[in-house]
Design brief:
The protein has 389 residues and is an alpha/beta fold. It is built from twelve helices and 15 strands. The protein folds into two domains: 12-141 and 278-352, Response regulator (Rossmann fold, 3-Layer(aba) Sandwich); 144-272 and 358-382, Rossmann fold. Helix 8 (226-237) links the parallel strand 9 and strand 10.
Length: 389
């Protein structure tokens, strides 16, 4: 017969073990560029993720959270796959987030599939990323998602001839294909498709080709950062605006670069899922929360992708009571609907991609003379139009 003292001793240790288990820290690995020409993405992901965590009192679903950052640098699939493996095997993370470049996301897919580690993509925008692993979700956007509405808008405006000019890598090809497919469906003609090297900074030759094409507008896709500034500079200096050629884009007037453009950006038109000027209580709370953790961080699509990504991870932690269970976590995430700083959103249970409003935006001067992406029209909720294309 077990003695009372032995029973109490066993129960005490069991309780201590349970307490220890419940207090176990949930680890979230975030992969982003923290060096090189795209390092601003890492800063913005960090600001968005840490702002969300701070808004929840530093814990998610009662669990302590450790954010572990790794530098993908730039488009480097082999290096990014190695980082993901180290985070899963060595650091034993429960969740992954981040990824700016689509080729890097494709490389990580086998790692998360084998380890059953849910990963929330904060940015990479090629449509079929989520098809490469059952453990991918995305809180950013795809080029098909934001391009189809602006192609429809161009056709409704009566534009008949458009040039596409895109950076020559997976998202750029998606952007080109999306615009061409929808615009021709609407009766328009893409008179030339220009693909530009990802790392180029001299856009004058491409601007001259656009001007000589006879097009009424140019649809542009560029990665964030220096390429945006370079292209808009070439657009203006080579007389495209004066020639009446309209600018149609997506993230090219991103808030991170917007003030650097100066008046050269006024009137540029884009279709996108987020503007820092979005007028809603959720967005105002988001902007304030980011400013609290990093007063220098801008609120843009990268910051909101990380903020909403952490919301999804929060709900997965809640559904699993902080325990590692990739399948249960993914099942919970597929059912999510919430009010984001960008507007009402949901995770499509089939594609595991975010459904969200897409807005027509025009660069205008806002309060204090600062440039803003003024939302002038909502195209309504759009999912990813690109899967299966």
């Amino acid at each position: 017969m077990r003695k009372p003292f032995q029973t109490m001793w066993a129960v005490g240790w069991m309780a201590l073990g349970l307490a220890s288990a419940s207090a176990q820290t949930v680890k979230v690995g975030i992969i982003a560029p923290f060096s090189g020409p795209f390092a601003h993405y890492g800063t913005l992901f960090k600001a968005g993720a840490e702002a969300y965590l701070a808004s929840q009192g530093g814990k998610l679903a009662g669990q302590s959270i450790e954010l572990i950052y790794r530098d993908e640098g730039g488009p480097n699939p082999a290096n990014t796959k190695t980082l993901a493996q180290e985070l899963v095997v060595k650091d034993k993370v429960d969740y992954l987030g981040g990824i700016v470049f689509s080729p890097n996301a494709f490389a990580v897919a086998p790692v998360i599939q084998e380890s059953k580690t849910p990963m929330v993509v904060f940015n990479a925008a090629t449509s079929d990323i989520t098809t490469k692993s059952d453990y991918y979700l995305r809180t950013s956007y795809t080029l098909w998602q934001v391009t189809v509405p602006i192609a429809q808008h161009a056709a409704k405006k009566g534009l008949k001839k458009v040039v596409t000019a895109v950076s020559d890598y997976a998202p750029g090809i998606d952007a080109e294909n999306a615009f061409k497919a929808e615009f021709t469906k609407q009766g328009g003609q893409v008179v030339e498709s220009i693909r530009m090297p990802v790392r180029t900074t001299d856009f004058a030759p491409f601007a001259q080709r656009i001007k000589a094409s006879g097009a009424q507008a140019v649809y542009v896709f560029l990665p964030g950062g220096p390429p945006n500034l370079g292209f808009v500079k070439a657009f203006n200096e080579n007389g495209l605006r004066q020639a009446g050629i309209e600018f149609l884009g997506t993230a090219e007037t991103d808030e991170f670069d917007l003030q650097k453009f100066g008046d050269s950006a006024l009137g540029l038109t884009t279709a996108f899922h987020y503007s820092a000027a979005h007028d809603s209580p959720a967005n105002k709370a988001f902007v304030a929360a980011v400013a609290k953790v990093n007063k220098d961080a801008v609120t843009n699509y990268a910051t909101v992708g990380a903020w909403d990504g952490m919301y999804v991870i929060h709900k997965m932690i809640e559904a699993t009571a902080g325990k590692r269970d990739g399948d249960k976590a993914m099942a919970a995430a597929k059912a999510l609907k919430w009010e984001s700083p960008r507007g009402p959103v949901a995770i499509d249970p089939t594609t595991r991609h975010i459904t969200q409003n897409v807005y027509l935006r025009t660069v205008e001067k806002g309060p204090g003379g600062l440039l803003i992406n003024k939302e002038t029209q909502s195209f309504g909720a759009h999912g990813d139009h690109g899967l299966g294309k």
